Amino acid sequence: MKRFLAFVKKEIQHIFRDTRTMLILFGIPIAQILIFGYVVKNDVKDVQIAVYDQSKDEYTRQLTNKLTSSGYFNLNRELKSMKNIDRIFKEGEVKLVVVYENNFSKKLHGENNAAVQLIADASDPNRANLITNYSAAIIRDFVKEEFNIDQLPFQINSEVRMLYNQNLASVFMFVPGTMALILMLVSAMMTSISIAREKELGTMENLLVSPLRPTQIVIGKVTPYVLLSIINAITILILGVFVFGLPIRGSLTLLMLESVLFITLSLSLGIFISTMSPNQQVAMFISLFALMLPTLLLSGFIFPIENMPRVLQWISVIMPPKYFIVILKNIMLKGTGLAFVWKETLILGAMTTVFIILSVKKFKLRLE
Amino acid sequence: MKAVEIHNIYKSYKEVKALSGINLQVKKGELFGLIGPDGAGKTSLIRILATLLYPDEGQASIFGWDTIDEFREIRKIAGYMPGRFSLYQDLSVEENLNFYASIFGTTIKENYHLIKDIYQQIEPFKKRLAGRLSGGMKQKLALSCALIHKPDILFLDEPTTGVDAVSRKEFWEILKSLEQVGITIIVSTPYMDEAELCDRVALMQQGRLLDVDTPANIIGKYDHDLYAVESKTLHRLIKDLRTFDKTTSAFPFGDTVHLATNETFRRQELDKFLSGKGHENITIKPIEPGIEDCFMNLMRRQNDQ
Predict the structure, then answer these.
(1) pLDDT tens digit sequence for A112-128
(2) CB contact (8 A) between residue A206 and residue B87
(3) H-type helices in chain B, by residue range?
């Protein structure tokens, strides 16, 4: 036990003396969560629009006002003809052009029918979709208020309610995803690098000829990172709750326990990677490319797994973060308990066991 | 019981044969030297003894413990100092020593007497990070770390390579004093002059042992007349000496050429031969052979076979 503690102490000294390690451990998680939270957003806010108003009457002005006062859209410029539309889209600032037809009010009163054309820049299709949906909804609203169309017979109003994330805030999606990504990267990468470093610098030779057992070396390596990763998890949660208003509807204890499970899994994965890497470069490379990209792309963090091709869906089954993200969303947003996430928990537990067994088996007691 | 017993060990890395049929015994308490140039197989042999490598064939034992099956016992009683400096550069001198003491389940205090002479020299710098020490001090720290658990046997892989002459001398004095305490020491070195400081040496070349004996016996077996020859143009001198009909071998040795001959000859004869080839300032002195001369001689013989 004394030997083990001495080993842990040495590890902690390594971590705190290396500014690079400290930066990766604490700088990157905070930066990443803030970047994902603030910058990477799917929300519609302050979108620049242009208006080509051919009738310039009471209604078109009111409608334009309603669009721009919604907070979603800003009037960038008024157009004089259709010709310029292509050009302003190419400039890139304006994402939506609203075109009112001639004699808008007259037609509306006379024929009960007037046309508005919405032209969106669909070089970013998801966004174009969002923008047109928002603007169409505002126009519908306007018509309803002005003319009380409710009088029409047999009208069905569908009222949509988005449960668990009423405002469809993308932060709610990104925080759990980022948390999985960061814990995965930090834990797996840092442990794999720190074991690979002992090999690279030759200090592993000294450890091997000592009476330390492989399990002592491995667990001694991992312990400090478990503690640091837990601190990271807590930091991310605090940022999520207080900066982005993320709710934690379920049990905080369960949430922390699940996080510890996921951290253990990432660490055992890190050790496994290190047993395959002769030096720090290889360990870093494997961690980044084998963990970061799949975590980003295949875990359902950014792209829904249901929409992926079959083959990728199968691959996503072995992505640990996939399960962790499901667990996080369930506990934080839906407030469910273990009864609803036991399957995912079990899978994570099984993966952890497999990686630990593999790493202890693969840990070499000799050089080569 | 012998401290080290090696039976017919072979080891190769892919195509390269590192060790081909090594047989060797080291007595308890001996200061034993593995002498040979780079690539002779010294590091491989030491790593096999330190339980860090498997031999391809053959077996070795340390105090009766087999290096393969009973490696855990050996790891308790052996101290090992790798050829490359491999302590934690980001830990201080004291922290390194403390760490190695505690993973062997001991403390600096307990075995301080053993490392006192060495450690005292680096103790003024004990707060300094190991990475910032000079070459000689690094080796002293590494030796202290290898000694701190009071090993019965010590494996040192080229401990004096890259160390200045003064530190080298000090280092060997330390080894001598450790021998007094009863620790068996296996040390490898490419420096032939260090061979004479060992009790017994094994001369190694291309994975084979050329000879195993005390330095004095090895020198005693030398069977040529040896001369140190000098002239103004060293490089051409070697070439010309090799064409002299009484020459067995001629090797550069610092600023001189060591000339080994089989028959006796009069010095004027060689002087005349060299002057005829246009050499100036010629000096020819008979000398006593050193280990390096013996090594060259044995090596040449093996190559002739």
Answers:
(1) 778 888 888 888 777 78
(2) yes
(3) 42-49, 71-77, 93-103, 112-122, 135-147, 165-181, 215-220, 234-243, 267-276, 291-304
Q: What is the DSSP string of A45-101?
A: -SEEEEEEESS--HHHHHHHHHHHTTSSEEEEEE-SSSTTHHHHHHHSS--EEEEEP
ipTM: 0.82
In tens, the pLDDT along A82-97 reads 888 888 888 888 888 9
Element (H, E) at A359: helix A338-362
Q: Write out chain B residues lying below 8 Å of A208, CB-based.
A: 51-52, 75
Q: Length of chain B in residues, anyone?
A: 305
Which residues 6+ apart lie within 8 Å of A27 measured at CB? none
Domain residue limits, chain A: 2-40+169-362, 47-151
Architecture (CATH level 2) of domain B223-288: 2-Layer Sandwich (3.30)
CB-CB neighbors (< 8 A) of A7 in chain B:
99, 103
Given this structure, which CATH class describes domain A47-151? Answer: alpha beta
Structure tokens at B119: 């450690």
Q: Coil, helix or strand for A163?
A: coil
Fold of B4-219: Rossmann fold (3.40.50)
Residue pair A262/A355 in contact (Cβ under 8 Å)? The answer is no
